[in-house]
Specification:
This protein is mostly beta strands. Helices cover 11% and strands 33% of the residues. The relative contact order is 0.10.
Length: 411
């Protein structure tokens, strides 16, 4: 009797729990439908501030032996970061295709898989997206072609600059070539043109500038993005990115290594500015390159997005690519990675792991912070001081005699 009573109580309890679980599931489903779509796990709501401390690695996308990520360009719209980049694929037959792709994120941590928006065609190889602008009621993406029809390592003389159009930042029109050398210059006479970037004149709305690389930074302007007038040539590196800061233009460009800066009030006269003081040329920005094997070959293609007035961000963001540990003469079509850094003033830059402290030691006494050791950049060959590398000779005394002077000198 008691046993039957207990069984009935258990059945009633299980029925109650099942009904509650079903009710909760239905409520969650309806809640998801009412809000449009459920927020992906791990990502903040659209209005939440970006948690920079939660970004654990400076690498956004990591290349490998068959994939390389280069030339980033980013736009932030309606709470979403859309990162465009060169996406290089090495196929099983050895052919290497350059494409333009993009990925999306709401928190700078979780990114969607690459979505390729240009055809796989060795005669074109659309790549190096410069930036996205709003022009009328459309979005405009500028980019380049980088033809390698015969397996060339670098794009041939038919490299040109182009634009694509979109209504929604997702679907893009066929590319249109920009006649940036002027309407009277035939396509075949334009020269090898790469790395386009578009920016509106700070003093004359409706006037658009196109920066592009033709063995230096070049500039043309247009009022309709169709008819262009050539303007100026600037001694600068590739991958130009332009911001307007007060009454000045700020240029970021890529020399042999790092990201350099210039400033100008009129687009004619440019002065170099440095990474430490913002006033004097102290060399290019290299961020944490010395500690990043994946970028020690070259750190390049800095794209800076000014989001200081965006409540969720409040900073400048820099996207860049790195190759390493070998240089681009060894690794060019493979292994390149995309990275992220940020700044409040374009002078002092931070990135994930920059200020990472050494693991805390639970010592029974106070200890000073552990600092990274540094060593002189030189090599001592002990064979020049009598050491014999035959596997039999004892070289201890000779080695000590050689090391004593170096030790005394602080080496």
């Amino acid at each position: 009797m008691i046993r039957n009573h207990v069984l009935n109580m258990v059945k009633d309890l299980m029925t109650t729990l099942t009904v509650a679980a079903v009710s909760l599931t239905v409520a969650m489903l309806f809640s998801g439908c009412a809000s449009g779509s459920k927020q992906p796990a791990g990502q903040p709501p659209e209005t939440g501030p970006i948690n920079f401390s939660a970004i654990k690695s400076p690498i956004i996308f990591k290349g490998d032996a068959t994939i390389a990520y280069r030339d980033p360009a980013c736009i932030y719209h309606n709470g979403v970061f859309r990162l465009f980049y060169t996406y290089i694929l090495t196929e099983d037959d050895g052919k290497i295709y350059w494409c333009t792709a993009f990925s999306k994120s709401r928190d700078l941590i979780h990114w969607t898989k690459p979505k390729i928006i240009t055809p796989k065609d060795l005669n074109l190889n659309f790549a190096s997206p410069g930036n996205v602008i709003r022009y009328g009621d459309q979005w405009i993406l500028c980019l380049q072609t980088y033809p390698t029809p015969n397996g060339e390592r670098y794009g041939n003389e038919n490299c040109r600059v182009w634009i694509m159009r979109s209504d929604d930042l997702e679907t893009w029109s066929p590319a249109e070539m920009l006649m940036v050398k002027g309407p009277d210059v035939p396509v075949e006479k334009m020269g090898r043109l790469i790395d386009a970037y578009l920016v509106e004149d700070k003093d004359e709305p409706g006037k658009w500038w196109c920066f592009f690389d033709d063995n230096a930074a070049n500039m043309s302007y247009s009022y309709d993005l169709k008819t262009w007038t050539y303007f100026n040539r600037i001694e600068a590196g590739e991958n130009v990115c332009i911001l307007v800061d007060g009454d000045e233009y700020v240029m970021f460009h890529s020399p042999k290594n790092g990201i350099a800066m210039k400033r100008s009030k009129d687009l004619k006269t440019w002065r170099d500015v440095g990474r430490k003081t913002g006033k004097h040329d102290t060399g290019p920005i290299t961020l944490g390159q010395k500690d990043w094997p994946w970028a020690q070959g070259r750190l390049s293609a800095g794209f800076v997005l000014d989001l200081r007035d965006e409540p969720r961000v409040g900073k400048y963001l820099m996207f860049f690519h790195g190759t390493g540990p070998e240089g681009e003469s060894v690794k060019f079509n493979t292994h390149a990675c995309l990275g992220l850094a940020w700044s409040d003033d374009l002078i002092h830059w931070d990135w994930p792991g920059k200020n990472a402290a050494s693991p805390a030691l639970k010592a029974p006494f106070d200890m000073p912070p552990i600092t990274r050791p540094s060593f002189p950049d030189r090599t001592i060959d002990i064979r020049e001081h009598g050491a014999v590398g035959d596997g039999n000779t004892l070289n201890t005394q000779g080695l000590c005699r050689r090391l004593k002077p170096s030790y005394a000198a602080g080496d």
